[in-house]
Specification:
- The chain is α+β, with helices and mostly antiparallel strands and 231 residues long.
- The protein contains 7 helices and 9 strands, in the order H-H-H-E-E-E-E-E-E-E-E-E-H-H-H-H.
- Strands 2-3-4-5-6-8 form a 6-stranded antiparallel beta barrel.
- Helix 6 runs antiparallel to helix 7.
- The protein is globular, with a radius of gyration of 19 Å.
- 31% of the residues are buried.
- Residues 180-189 have a biased composition (Low complexity).
- It holds the Pfam family CHAP.
């Protein structure tokens, strides 16, 4: 009994320290979007009331606020970098696919029944595919002056690892205006279209959502990929 108590106390003592050693989503989103809100991500939606406009339509530079779900007990925030269509956007965020990881211009897909962005699926960079989980959201927080600001790693904010961007077009005026240094470092031209694997079939996503929760993440991903190919 004493041994288990000691292990439990050790785990409780190390958890906050671990959280403080890696970059969190909040300071990253605040820097990139310019939305001056502090505190856990799950509080951003309520804090934005009477300070920023809120809504359920994606806009470049807006902050997408995620509701807590499963192990994501503090919610999450991400910044829209580009609107592709009514159901797809590219986002920039931190501490999602891996602790402290920065993911820039990765895909997020609206999988809500009403098309109001109340549930999304998000790209998982380590596996190079869409995440299987459907994530509930509050909606979008719109900054007063939409602008994508450059994020420079700061040891004071924690350790971070930057993943490569999925797709950026150098001669896109909006992209160059948002980050001239980043655009200049890219090849002369990269394809504007997303890779074919990202042409998702929402019916396959719905099928994955309907599967029993006891099934493993690997099984769900395999079913989604298989169903997408067959359709």
């Amino acid at each position: 009994m004493m041994r288990w108590a000691a292990l439990l106390l050790a785990g409780l003592a190390t958890t906050p320290v671990l959280g403080a050693t890696v970059l969190q989503c909040v300071p990253y989103a605040r820097t990139v979007s310019g939305v001056r809100i502090y505190g856990d991500a799950l509080t951003w939606w309520d804090q934005a009331e009477n300070h920023y406009k809120r809504g359920h339509a994606p806009r470049r530079g807006a902050v997408l606020a995620f509701r807590p779900i499963g192990p994501m007990v503090l919610g999450h925030v991400a910044v829209v970098s580009r609107v592709l269509d009514d159901r797809r956007v590219l986002i920039r965020h931190a501490n999602w696919s891996a602790p402290g990881a920065i993911e820039e211009d990765v895909l997020a897909v609206d999988v809500s029944e009403e098309g109001d962005w109340s549930a999304v699926r998000v790209w998982h960079s380590p596996t190079n595919q869409m995440g299987a989980r459907s994530n509930p959201t509050f909606g979008f927080i719109y900054p007063d002056k939409p602008q994508l600001r450059e994020f420079r790693p700061d040891p004071a904010l924690g350790v971070s690892t930057r993943f490569a961007s999925m797709t950026v077009v150098k001669d896109d005026p909006e992209e160059e205006a948002a980050s001239p240094r980043r655009a200049a470092a890219l090849p002369p031209r990269r394809a504007a279209a997303l890779p074919p694997r990202l042409a998702l079939d929402l019916r396959a996503i719905g099928y994955a959502d309907a599967t029993p929760s006891a099934r493993s993440l690997r099984d769900i991903i395999a079913d989604v990929k298989r169903d997408s190919v067959l359709r």
